[in-house]
Amino acid sequence: MDPASIGKAVLLALVEGATEFIPVSSTGHQLLVGHFIGFHSPNNTFEVLIQLGAILAILLVYFRRLLGIATAVPSDPKARRFVLGILVAFLPAAIIGGLFSKLIKAYLFNPWIVCATLVAGGLVLLVIDDTDLEVKKTDVYDFSLPMDLKIGIFQCLAMIPGVSRSGATIVGAMLMGADKRSATEFSFYLAMPTMAGAFAKDLLDNYKYLSSNDVGLIVIGFIVSFVSALFVVRVLLDYVSRHGFWLFAWWRIIVGALGFAGLIILG
What is the pLDDT of residues 135-166, one digit of tens each? Predict the structure, then answer.
């Protein structure tokens, strides 16, 4: 591992942790940054595997709640229904990702597509943030199973890099009647099985192609993404509740526009 590769891995991991749980697309940002700094990993494996750091960060922040849910499942119907709802929401991504992940990587992991979806997603967030949607649900434990399934279908849009997994699930939940805080919290819970599943599948598909240098960079990336994601998860819910999504919307639009400019000028 040369210093330049380590520096690039650290930068990408910072981007991953900082953007995984906000609606700006961590994968899209990693693809753009990786393109411009010349970082390439086999089948984009580095970008997927360092998500483990972000997964552990949210597990740490939500440990007490997850433990409470787990201990309540045998006796509490509401807890059982919530767990079932998360699994139902995860199912569409599990099916589509399992069947088409290689095709998606081959044809959609393209910086031009990322820039286009970043801008388009930013415009969607501006519209959603400025629309007076009817709020029917303010607690993630009260989401219905049909609502969970619809949110899970929205999450599948995030398989297009630049769309944003958290952005798709938050927008989907709000269109289904959730307020901003509960929509964001549900996105956190749904991230756990979704990201863990993507990590496991990518590791199974690509472990044989990884060299010792790749493994070392992934370990560094895991640590850095864990620390940066831990900070974001701790502050995001309160920020969204107070300020909405306008900052993330404009961030997407600006990054997408700069990305287009960079691709045109630098290639």
Answer: 999 999 999 999 999 999 999 999 999 999 99
